[in-house]
């Protein structure tokens, strides 16, 4: 499996995982200087399964941006994400 990670907004790096193990959530953080001010970018990767709906909403508090991911080759994946957006 390949994951693309955007680094510094300028280039994408590809990381290959031999054995993917799904998690309920994971988070990443980086401090970036923007116009002379340090900004903390935090990314919370949460599980998409319905079993985790209540747990997932805890990570929304204080969020300024949401990134929604879906498969470009699966119409069902797109429809699923569209339904989740309507729930807000």
UniProtKB/TrEMBL annotation:
This is Rac-like GTP-binding protein ARAC2. InterPro entries: P-loop_NTPase (IPR027417), Small_GTP-bd (IPR005225), Small_GTPase (IPR001806), Small_GTPase_Rho (IPR003578). NCBIfam families: small_GTP. One of its GO terms (biological process) is small GTPase-mediated signal transduction. It comes from Striga hermonthica. Coiled coil: none annotated. SUPFAM superfamilies: P-loop containing nucleoside triphosphate hydrolases. Keywords: GTP-binding, Lipoprotein, Nucleotide-binding. Gene3D superfamilies: P-loop containing nucleotide triphosphate hydrolases. Belongs to the small GTPase superfamily. Rho family. The keyword Nucleotide-binding applies. SMART domains: RHO. GO terms for molecular function: GTP binding; GTPase activity.
